[in-house]
Amino acid sequence: MSLVISQNFVLTDATPEFPVTLDHPVIGWHNVVTPSGVIANSADPAFPAANLANPATHLDWRADASGLQYVNVTTGYIDKLDYVGIAGHNFGSEQIPFSILDSLGNTLVEEVLLRDDSPVMFRFRAQSLAGLTLVLNAINGQLPRAAVLYVGKLLVLERKIYVGHTPLTQARRHNVQNGRSESGKFLGRIVLGAWRETVIPLSLLSPAWYRDHGGDEFLAVAAETPFFFGWRPESYPYEIGYCWTIEDPMPVPTGPSNRIAFDLKVGGIV
């Protein structure tokens, strides 16, 4: 549930009117990873590296050997990229340090050791990348695995979120069956299911930002594809989720400013 910012990261403005801070919400929906564009130097035949290009978290890549592991991504993309998202991994529980390099061997993200296996985003200076490499230092017998790998350009929201949002890490939902005797005594309960679900309230978005900076494009893609989300990346870097939409959001201009507002209802994993 963390966001790691490279030491080489340079903050830029989203628009002249609304300068971005590190606490502006970020959405990692854009992804250039394809099944044919990702390879690893070690993979279990039943769990190939191509699974990393599938947004489903039940399909994963699994190394079949320990030692230094390399996951190489060929982007096939000439525009600027600035983030990597990973979900469904074991890098934290297995204590596997890793770094991210560009195709020339330059460091994009310094070596990091995650504290758990929750979704993570890595943010670095926006630049054109022909490819990049995850270098996993599994020299103590660990076998790395990961389910989802995104590489792309972050959508930085125009406005911060102040109220009306429960972070996905705290948004627990349960389907519970309670037992009760004829006299009303409590007999116990069975948890039939558990998940995370929350609402991301978005408001005061300028029509120009929504149309020109990827807001509408994001919603079109999110109808079918999950995304990474950090609501306050600087203040709460460990509250990152891998999310999917539950209902269709309807952006509506609201008075008196005619700025756009809508609620984004999502489920996700943390």
Mean pLDDT: 91
Q: Give me the CATH superfamily of the largest domain.
A: Galactose-binding domain-like
Largest sheet: 8 strands, antiparallel
Distance between the termini: 6 Å
User: How many E-type strands?
Assistant: 19
CATH class annotation of the largest domain: Mainly Beta
Overall geometry: globular
- The radius of gyration over CA amounts to 20 Å
- The class by helix and strand makeup works out as mainly beta
Q: Which sequence of SSEs, written as H and E, runs from N to C?
A: EEEEEEEEEEEEEEEHHEEEE
Helix content: under 10%
- Which segments are poorly predicted (pLDDT under 50) over 5 or more consecutive residues? none
Structural description of this entry:
By secondary structure, the chain is mainly beta. It folds into 2 domains: 31-153, Sandwich (Jelly Rolls); 168-269, no CATH class. The relative contact order is 0.22. The radius of gyration is 20 Å and the shape is globular. The model has no long low-confidence stretch (mean pLDDT 91). A hairpin with a 4-residue loop joins strand 18 and strand 19 (259-269). The protein has helices spanning 207-212, 215-222; strands at residues 2-5, 26-28, 38-40, 61-62, 67-74, 80-87, 98-102, 107-112, 120-128, 131-138, 145-146, 148-152, 155-156, 172-180, 186-205, 227-230, 240-245, 252-254, 259-269. It has 2 helices and 19 strands. Strands 2, 13, 14, 15, 16, 17, 18 and 19 form an 8-stranded antiparallel sheet that branches. Strands 3-5-10-7-8 form a 5-stranded antiparallel sheet, with no helix packed on it. 5% of the residues lie in helices and 44% in strands.
